[in-house]
Design a protein that fits this description.
about 140 residues
């Protein structure tokens, strides 16, 4: 008989968070997003009293691996079929079709089309400013 996957539940009486550790990719979105709830230094590591149920549900929805979920709730996935990612040889990565980028101030900024630096020399990092195309000055 195969081992059953580990599934843990945490509740505040209003909502129940389900955590599947074998599915987790450790993106850190939960830790950065609600450190009052998700804290690896505490046991249990999920403190359901650390935020409102609404805040917890909103953050759990953002879990990229779906290792975190809400018991009895199925989130509708957004349609990204019109999104396009283009890698320019020796240039930027261009994302068309809309996306949200979190800036250094932890603010979400929406872009319909955005060009990300891949050379690491842009003065507007993470955005491309064309530096990759400039010749080195001698």
């Amino acid at each position: 008989m195969a081992d059953q996957p580990v599934i843990k539940e945490y509740t505040n009486g209003e909502v129940t968070v389900i955590w599947k550790p074998d599915t987790c990719i450790h993106s850190g979105i939960c830790l950065k997003g609600l450190s009052r709830v998700f804290d690896l230094k505490q046991r249990p590591w999920i403190n359901m009293e650390g935020a409102t149920s609404e805040e917890i549900v909103t953050l759990v929805r953002e879990c990229p691996s779906k290792a975190l979920s809400i018991k009895g709730v199925r989130f509708k996935e957004p349609d990204h079929s019109d999104r396009e990612i283009i890698l320019i040889p020796h240039g930027p990565m261009i994302v068309k079709g809309g996306g949200t980028v979190q800036n250094r101030k932890q603010q979400d900024v929406f872009h319909e089309t955005v060009s990300f630096c891949r050379c690491g020399r842009s003065k507007k990092h993470p955005y491309c400013d064309g530096t990759h195309a400039k010749k080195k000055e001698e």
